[in-house]
Fold these 4 entries.
Entry 1:
Amino acid sequence: MIKRKKTRQIAVGEVKIGGNAPVSVQSMTNTDTRDAEKTLEQIQQCAAHGCDIIRVALPDMKAVEALPEILDESPIPVIGDIHFNHELAVKSIEKGVQCIRINPGNIGSSEKVKKVIDAAKTANIPIRIGVNAGSLERDIKEQYGITADALVESALRHVRYFESQNFYNIKLSLKSSSVPLTIEAYRNISEKCDFPLHLGVTEAGTAFSGTIRSSIGIGTLLAEGIGDTIRVSLADEPVEEVKVGLELLRALDLRKGPHLIVCPTCGRTEIDIISIAKKVEEKVRKLRIEKNISIAVMGCVVNGPGEAEEADVGIAGGKGQAVLFKKGKIIRKIPEQEIVTELLKELQTIL
Ligand code: SF4
């Protein structure tokens, strides 16, 4: 079991982050936020796949003006992502975002940051201080180079300022596209403060490489008990980020849900396990199961019956057919073309 580091608790809308709250999954829309309808559509898709919190880019006032329509309909809390312009941050807080993400280093003078802090204080919403290796302050870069120490120093500098303003409703992220750097930075900051941490590997890549890099970066930290909310960054649809994020949490037993056990197939496989497993996975995902259930899709009699028997439901393939198991017992034989339907039917009986 993972022993999670206890952090202070904050709330983004209804979603608690830190303390004893479960690790939440975030994503970010990639629509033009000014198009409220399209943005909402994407938010709804993400929410339907289990996303807990969504972030939207707010690059200009028009985007900020679209917020009320988005906030009215969004089924999950919305975080406004602001760079460079404190007025956009203040306005979006006034419009009702449930949290904002800024990198105080690119907002400008401390007076400007203070205005954002004051607005967040009045609205009683948290601020994510998002430090990024790509936009470190010049003096920090000169002193530390682009290192984990630099990220930590930058974050702590901002934290000190926020604390001097009596503002503690914060969470932190220290992102880099380098996985080892990200891991080191989060480990260090986790020892130095107890603010909740938002984990992510930035610009991680496409669905393939980004999934691997995020899983190693975020997964290593979560396995060490570090991290309170996660965002997997992929150059893909946000919903794909949500799927990966949830699977990552399930892999570490940090989130309940279905576990699909699939054999890798080999020369003994006599039914199309790969396409059967994909279909089962897709259908199971739509069921939004929130308890631990194992489903085995196995190719043959070598490991098949063993795994399938251990699982809550499962099949072990044979020639053109499969044996269906439930809770360790053989239920019946089923022809190949009926495997998906029958397995799902059996699964429904134990939900
Ligand atoms: S369960 Fe059977 S088909 Fe699947 S990999 Fe193992 S030996 Fe091969």
Entry 2:
Amino acid sequence: MKTARKKPPSPSGAELWARYRKLFPKYFWGEETRLASVVISRAHGSTLVDADGREYIDLTSQWATNNLGHVHPDVLRATTAALERYGFLIYFMNPHLPMLELAEKLLEVRPSPNLSRVFLELSGTGAVEGAIKYAVEVRERPVILGFMGQYHGLSIGTGMVGALSSHERRHWEAYGGGVVHAPYPAGSRRPVGMGDEEYGGFVLDYIRDQLLRHVVAPDRIAGTILEPVACEAGIWIPPKSFVRGLRKLCDEFGWVFIDDEVEAGVGRTGRMWSIEHFGVAPDLVAIGKGISGGLMPIAAVLGTDELMAERDVAAGTTFGGHPAACVAASTTLDVMARDRLVERSAKLGRAALRRMGEWTGYDTVLDTRGLGLCLGVEVGTRASRTPSPETARRIFFDCVDHGVVPLYNYGDTVIRVQPPLTITEPELEGALDVLEAALRRAAT
Ligand SMILES: Cc1ncc(COP(=O)(O)O)c(C=O)c1O
């Protein structure tokens, strides 16, 4: 006689966390980078469920990726059908319908009409690498102008063009020979007494009067790369006049304007692309993360004919343009249009920022800022106006203990609110209640 086998108990969160630490590199769980010790067993909508059955509101969208929430049913259905039909096809040998449809859809929502071609990649890192290759090879110039505080990825190339932290660039500094950096004109490191506009003007003057005069001649620069809203830096928003001034420098010296929309794009800031807040036409746009609603890895670069149709530039990767990922991205764009998610991001973001603005009365809050559902609270000691990583860390873990996961980089002083664009109003309100309570508690 058969006896019914007892189901073994599911491993607890603590057991899974111990296995994780044993199997994966230290960067992902070490003290300097560790986020929340939460092993997730299930995710849906804006909710994460951990291995012990606890629920959390996800204010990260998985680092601004799952813009439609976790496991959007329409994207899942279309992606599964595409996998069954196409499996994998390498797009530069056997072009397929999903990649053509995606390219046409992306161009329908492009930020400016000069963009007419689409290069497909696998990750935001790959998209930025590709954009840099187009700029350098077509212009036949070796140097890229980047900005301090920007993040473009952790590969050797993107790590050198970006300059988020000297800690992450350690040992590789010498590889950045083809990059010069200028300050990003926003954020808490603005010189004392300088307003936003003034700081933007100062940086443009610094580029023209210092960098171009003493470091690199303008005809040696292929292009510049800008995050129009610098998310990883702590939601920095530069003045309009700066972004327009940078475009003018590009026109004057023949530089390619590369717009990195990997994190701030796809509706995150309340416009389809964050560059739209500045009324500037970029020459190349790097897109990633949220473009497939978070279900499949895919990224893209939009570019001009001049940059993409006249020369052979050897850029690309095997899995870029995976048919099912193209379908996931096309379906994401359809869902965004149908459910008016860009407008939703703007509306929910405006209301949230209004509420967050009231928090500047708390002793721990130095600033609240953002656009759309791309929001941040800078924390520290208000009296001395000193940002404090320790306060941020305490607030982050307090939120996690109370069922909310904000977006937070270990060592940062900004707690970020970047939820799915589909988050319900009660979910967002409830999550902000938890964050507000944590800010209040941290002050005592
Ligand atoms: C602005 C920006 N560019 C590029 C990247 C790199 O993208 P990925 O991690 O998908 O390779 C990121 C990732 O966070 C990003 O925020």
Entry 3:
Amino acid sequence: MGPFHLSLRDIINNSLPIFIFTFIFYPLFTSAQETDAEEILRSRDVELRKEIINVAPNVYTAVGYSPANVSMIVGTNGLIIIDTGMNVSHAEEIVNEFREISDLPVRGIIYTHGHGDHTGGAAAFIGGDMPEIWALENFGIEDRPLSLAGLTIQRQRGVRQAGFALPDELRINNGIAPAIQPGRADAFVANLENTAPNKTFVSGREVIEIAGVELELVAAPGETNDQIYVWYPTQEVLFAGDNYYKSFPNLYAIRGTPYRDVLAWSKSLDLMLDEEPASVVPGHTRPVIGKEAVQLALAQHRDAVRFVHDKTIEGMNLGLMPDELVEYVQLPDELSDEADLGEYYGRVEWAVRSIFTGYLGWYDGNPTNLSSLYPSEEGIRMAELAGGIDELREKAMESLDEGDAQWAAQLADYLLAINSNDGRAKLIKADALTSLARQSVNALARNYYLTIADTLRQEEEN
Ligand SMILES: [Zn+2]
């Protein structure tokens, strides 16, 4: 009997547990109950699994311990940490893992940008001596104008998009991050009291040396205007921050942020390509290793970002309005078919709308919309068209039953504009949103739909 010939007994002894798991347990508890979209989103878990990855000699990245990646470079007499995770308890777990590799003191921390999921764990890496803490001079610029204005709603919207208010069983993952509870929602806002940058640079390229390691910090506006990438020339490793991760990028965040400069983002990806890295460590998801793979990955992302920008501009110049542009701007198949450009985190549609308003503001160009009816007035007129409020509600129910969840939600909105206490309309909307959530491969949309659906149901119960 050759070594590859298996008897039935061998199969039972060796493969039965795998067989049972693969074909019985796993489908029973996951895919059998899941929609195609949910299965696709869940399949991204493989990118988010917990692991300390040895990217290059003396370069390690912790994936899956916190929503964002945390990297360590081991220098001659100290460590450099690039991004620090979302909160101290995540970061402490990573410190424990890194301490298995080196017990040298942390001499430098570098923030790729000011978002809380990259900065909130910094305190865990600071021991006796204060390390150099590097960032771009405008660090934290994205949130600053909102805070100065006294705007707080983006935090609530942030909790919705991240799914922090949802029960665990409704969360799959966040598209580019595991569905980790943050130690509650407020941890998403960085605690920078003692961990603020103490070394900054203004623009261009800053060459620094920490613990015998020479690094180049490069200003690279994209996801945020304070974004940098870190280039480690000796090992040809590029730490991309959030200008690159394995999803269609979040060119617009539905929690609400100032305009993300999409054209600048594509140019930052050009800069990154020009470095010709041997490996790239994204802000989220696993590193890409190998020059060819890196070039392909970064070029595809650059092409997707540039395409959406340029096609939107083309449509705007034709006089198309945002709702029309969403139909006009479709990624070409060779990009949309790429698994790593799936819309798990960002969405093309949101980017298109954001590019429009980023350049031209809210007015779509149609004079009908210079002074639209108030929602309550429009709702009353729609009810009249339907033959009355009860008939409108009936129509909404029908749409829901026919699987037209988007229209059901829109009709429910008319009803709720007429009467915000219309309990049946709330439940129709809740069911419609749940249905939309379950058809969405986009984790942020899913989380947002489900959170609002949950709120509407709770309101109805009370
Ligand atoms: Zn991030």
Entry 4:
Amino acid sequence: MVAGSERQDSSIEIVPIDLGPGVHAAFTTRDGGVSAGPWGGLDLATHVGDDPVAVAHNRGLVERWVGAPIAWADQVHGAEVFVVTAPPADRLAPVARADALVTGRIDVAVGVLVADCVPVLLADAAAGVVAALHAGRRGLVAGVVQSAVAAMRDLGAIPGRIRSMIGPSVCGACYEVPSAMRDEVARLVPAARAETSWGTPSLDLPGGVAAVLGACGVGEVQRLELCTLTDPRFFSHRRSARRSEPTGRFAGVIRLAGVSPRS
Ligand SMILES: [Zn+2]
């Protein structure tokens, strides 16, 4: 079990997150689901070569926990935000090409898929606005965090009231990059400048995301401090690539609701 996690369903393990009253939020792990091979077991992505039937089943397990259909995006490492105004018609079809999904609806959850990139869940419970965003290196530089907070404001959220959680992602001690790439990112996001545990240039993407959330005025910025590369309970693109294997994606999901999620 991951520290702080709970087995919510007979078949999946999640890390529940408190972002305010009436907000259901969690990060999934690999634990549970029906995917096989390198995607085993709770793979939630349709674009990584896994069996779509297994992915649909797995998504259904997470929907059962959160108590509503989940909207997923076709994530492209940009800064586009999509406002979800209705539950998705199809469990396997992305609702938009975007890297952040925002909603004020209670009948739909929003999700973000990751395997090393930074997933962030945000909520202004009083305004009734939630968001899930995907911030990899390119998205962070493109401004996806700022775009998502701006879209939440457009729906009535007040930044100082927003609570956020940065989920499992590759950490600054592990994410080695060429020196020039580190400089390029750090010019825009100085907090992302880091060194690996073996002393070479790296990027601290979750640290960079935290700094940008703070600069946007987000009232509460929390980090789970779980590293996907070193923690086998999460999918990691980099770890799998070392073995020349594909891998799955875990998720952050968030929903507004006044009732307890089903367990
Ligand atoms: Zn690490």
